[in-house]
Amino acid sequence: MKSSEIRSRFLNFFKERGHAIIPSASLVPENDPSVLFNTAGMQPLVPYLLGEKHPNGTRLVDIQKCVRTVDIEEIGDNTHASFFEMLGNWSLGDYFKKEAIEWSYELLTSKEKGFGLDPRFLYVTVFEGNENAPRDEESYKIWNDIFIKNGISGERIYFMPAKSNWWSAGENGPSGPDTEMFYNVTGKDIGGMSKEQYLLADEKQQVVEIWNDVFMQYMSKNGKVEGKLPRHNVDTGSGLERVTMVVQGKDNIYATDLFQPIMDKIDEFTVSDDKRARRIVADHVRTAVFMISDGVLPSNTDRGYILRRLIRRAVRFADVLNMKHGSLFQIADTVIDNFKETYPNLAEKREQIKTAIDVEEHKFRKTLKDGLREFEKIAAASKSISGQEAFLLFSSYGFPIEITQELAKERGISVDTASFDEEFKRHQELSRSGAEKKFKGGLADTSEMSLKYHTATHLLNAALRQVLGNHVMQKGSNITPERLRFDFNHPAKMTDDEKKRVEEIVNEKIQEALPVTFVEMKADEARKGGAIGVFDEKYGETVKVYRIGNPDKTFFSQEFCGGPHVKNTSELGRFKIQKEEAVSAGIRRIKAVLE
Q1: Exposure check for the chain: N or C terminus, fewer CB within 10 A?
Q2: What are the Cα distances from residue 184, in Å, to 75, 178, 209?
């Protein structure tokens, strides 16, 4: 079964069970300061998990593009990837544990409509309970009944601690137990396993996690459960790469049709059998392609820095493989061809993607030789590399810290990464200190000031279009309780007069005390009515359109948006632009505050 059929079977399975299919959001989160990229399927749906009504109902299904680099050291093993597609189905106060678990089992094992996996190779974990919540006997019983009903014998359900089977949106917010499904990829029917045998099999990657059902049923405060949520949600996640691996009978994701054409292309440039290096190049180039297609370009800050690290790390391992210079953008061509039917924007941006990768490779290679010489000099003088020396390699030679660490490990010396981090923060001032922390829910800030800034971005977008022209479209934003950051397309630096006029328009609309309302309608109807689809790809057939202005007059702003916002512009205060600058070619950025 090809990966394309796995995608369609997944969506159709849940569509038949009353779920509305919604498209993937961009990798770049909308108004979520908690992470630089969407790292889980639930992130774009945060407002709805918190209680907002979704225009497509209470049952949803999607395949969300995700990026996680927290596990970058694991890339090259059998199951980890920095870019992945997350299959997810959602219940917003609708069904709960019984339906979610039974459907998970049915989809995994049904030969007619599902993935046709052998249920004898399936193992599951459930929450063992702690001081916050009781042992999840309900999920255990549902699973036990399923296995008995289908004649699946042997021990295969394991109670696990909160570290493994408890989901939480940080210290405060929704939380709950989860149940995880693992599949035996050895090809040998070993029947049931004791818990000790299962843990050892997991450690050896003989069983691989392929699905996770989260049951949001509690509210936590300061890390402690305070009570039950009035509305229970289900958040499921299944990585396409791992599902494809087990469905296609492989023991690693790189042998599937999601990666094999890329691996074959790499084989054209190297005769090395260094498996880990080949996989790292394939993974990093694939991730870079998807990042660039969603508007990210290499830089020394934020998302651009993550992209730069991946491309430069790919260059480093391409050299390990003795690949010729300039081969990465050709591998990118293969990535695009492999995914263009599912993600047409890859083909549309083919030249931009290839150019960005090629330019970054050549930029790094200008200093790579000198950097390696400097590294050897440092390594020869000591058994450790200080944070200052590691930072010198970064700032002067463009070495991401991972490259310094890998080179040091090969020579049996250590790196003072703590001191490097201090140097990095002091000199580079990364605006997102949590970029590489493991995602713990990523709920967008819904404080009063964040709602004000969210609403202000709508006024700013409309004002920019009025002053600069209707070509202006939002290309990203970042909101905190202290300020807003707004990216938009425009070919030139704004003049002082243009910035002043935009400020004046926004403040005029604030003073007019305009109501902020929303309506739900068909997407085509919304567009015909003048609504701007800033993040079109996030929304389905039915959309929520936020309007700023009086209904008896022309609305000042109409945009597709999930919310939430303030009720009236008079709540915002005075709007002031602090800075306007370039982000990349043709993309500008405004930083502004409400006083």
Answers
A1: C
A2: 21, 20, 9
Q: Which one-letter amino acid corresponds to residue 246?
A: V
Instruction: Please write the tens of the pLDDT for every residue from 170-218.
Output: 677 788 999 999 999 988 888 899 999 999 999 998 999 999 999 999 8
Distance between CA 141 and CA 161 in Å, rounded? 18
Q: Tell me if 236 sits within 8 A of 89, measured CB to CB.
A: yes
Measured CA to CA, the distance from residue 3 to residue 262 in angstroms comes to 15
Q: Could you give the residue ranges of the DSSP H alpha helices within 177-239?
A: 195-203
* Contact by Cβ (8 Å): 521, 543: yes
> Under DSSP, is residue 341 helix (H, G, I), strand (E, B) or coil?
coil
Higher-pLDDT residue of 79, 46: 79
Q: Label residue 563 by pLDDT band (50, 70, 90).
A: low
Instruction: Give the DSSP letter string of 123-163.
Output: EEEEE---SSS---HHHHHHHHHHHHHTT--S--EEEE-HH
Q: Is the pLDDT of residue 96 over 60?
A: yes
Band of pLDDT at residue 444, cut at 50, 70 and 90:
very low
CB atoms within 10 A of CB 500: 13
User: Cβ neighbours of residue 498 under 8 Å, at least 6 residues apart?
Assistant: 467, 468
| Residue 237 φ/ψ, nearest 5 degrees | -145, 135
| Whether residue 564 has a cis bond before it, omega within 30° of 0 | yes
Tokens 């000790």 appear where? 196
Of 354, 369, 352, the closest CA to residue 316 belongs to 369
Task: Give the Å distances, CA to CA, from 44 to 67, 456, 535, 583.
Answer: 13, 20, 11, 24
Q: What is the pLDDT of residues 121-131, one digit of tens each?
A: 999 999 999 99
In percent, the amount of the chain with pLDDT more than 90 equals 59
If we measure between CA atoms, which residue out of 421, 445, 424, 428 comes closest to residue 34? 445
Cross-strand partners of 167:
176
